[in-house]
Design a protein that fits this description.
The protein has about 500 residues and is α/β, with parallel strands linked by helices. The protein has helices at about 5-10, 30-40, 55-65, 75-80, 95-105, 125-135, 150-155, 170-180, 195-225, 230-240, 250-260, 280-290, 295-310, 310-320, 335-365, 370-380, 390-400, 410-435, 440-450, 455-470; strands spanning about 25, 45-50, 70, 90, 115-120, 140-145, 160-165, 180, 185, 480-485, 495. It has 20 helices and eleven strands. Helix 9 (about 195-225) packs antiparallel against helix 15 (about 335-365) and helix 16 runs antiparallel to helix 17 (about 390-400). The structure holds 6-phosphogluconic acid (6PG).
Length: about 500
Amino acid sequence: MKTTEQSAGSEPGLAAIGMAPSDIGIVGLGVMGANLALNLSDQAYRLSVYNRTGAVTAEFIATHGQGRAIAVADNLQQLVSQLASPRVILLMVTAGRAVEAVIEQLQPWLAPGDILIDGGNSNYQDTDRRWRTLAARGLHFVGMGVSGGEDGARFGPSLMPGGAAAAWPVIRDMFQAIAARVDGIPCCQWLGEGGAGHYVKMIHNGIEYGDMQLIAEVCHLMQHALGLSHDEMADRFAAWNGGRLESYLIEITARLLRQRDHDGGPLVERILDVAGSKGTGVWTAQDALDNAVPLTLIGEAVHARMLSARKSERVAAAALLGSVPTLVPEAERAACLEALHDALYAAKLVSYTQGFMLMQAAAEKNGWALPFGDIALLWRAGCIIRSRFLADIRNSFERQPVPPSLLQDPFFAAEVKNAEAGWRRAVMLAVGHGIAAPALSSALSFYDGYRCAYGSANIIQAQRDFFGAHTYQRVDRDETAHFHTRWLGDGGEEKLS
Ligand code: 6PG
């Protein structure tokens, strides 16, 4: 690695051509990189941009470069030479090998104190490793979750930075300036060291999977149990978006249900029922298993996407096992729609409860002081899961920064009790009509298990002790004492130390 002076001198910088050095370099001009670049440029930051395929850079400059302080770099060395010190470089390349390769190629030209920011959907464990490796070389590595899709990147994303704390004072103003805002507060707050930022983004994506699955299940029930047309479904989602379910995903669902195909039929009916995925939902579910956190709803959402992928097998099974579900009588439809609303709301609450539970476990394991209230705030706007509901979650964390769980917050406890009857009715509707609703129903099972002071695990413990002498604890003795019963012998009990 070269010193600042050496690397600055190895390529003629912008000063040589009478231009001020750039505030930030951006590597990768795909949709997200290009839109973040324009957003930064709108805030009067000077940029240098580089894309591996030069034609993409040329197109970007031809379309957007007019009147903007954007310098083009032909290679990474030149990009580095164009930047003010300490250099700030934002990588907007595909997670995985591409990130690794760009970091490798950049390193020879960087100096201690320079800042590298990975804005892709990288696995937080990769980010943690890169943060450590680069720190040993004096470089500050930041893993920053970016959410909000194309429009968010262009006009105000939710940003989830974490990594080298020394980088934050340098990059804070820049990224808070381009982020979405809630009541003037930017949706971009520091989340902690190492992979904390990408971890929080991973949880965001897991919750996104859960929200999407819940909405999909409700659509399916509306259509196949209640017999609603797509326009009627759209009307219902639009109405719900004016209430406690107000959120980006509910809003776009109303819009996409109204979209017509060229022959006038609903477009969604022509879309293949196989869900894609880029991996962050699976990572979330895996992480929950690793941390022994019952993240059931997101797990079901991941499994539902996997089941959707078995299209030909499902088609064959439908011919063999399927039956056409009957519709509920017209007179019951209005009440069923209310029930679906309440079920969606209550199950969503369970999903967020589980997501925050997982973040608490990860924070303890990794030594992160995750700011839960700030996380709710920075998801309040800009990102895919943005919703009114997140303001209530933020308020809950203001009341109690680390509650045992959101379901034990007085506000949410009252909310879920209010919704409970409708939720049960919606799940019974699904079960009775043979319509899969794994997220709605697993959330209800979690809720019933969670609010059960004496559950069914006593039977499991007895079985374990019966076949494997794995021992059990007793409710009427000190919990540190373990017992084994001679189930097949004289039935006597032994106390084990
Ligand atoms: C966001 C999204 C985004 C994600 C897509 C696709 O926050 O803007 O989470 O990062 O890549 O939603 O994810 P899947 O392909 O896994 O559904």
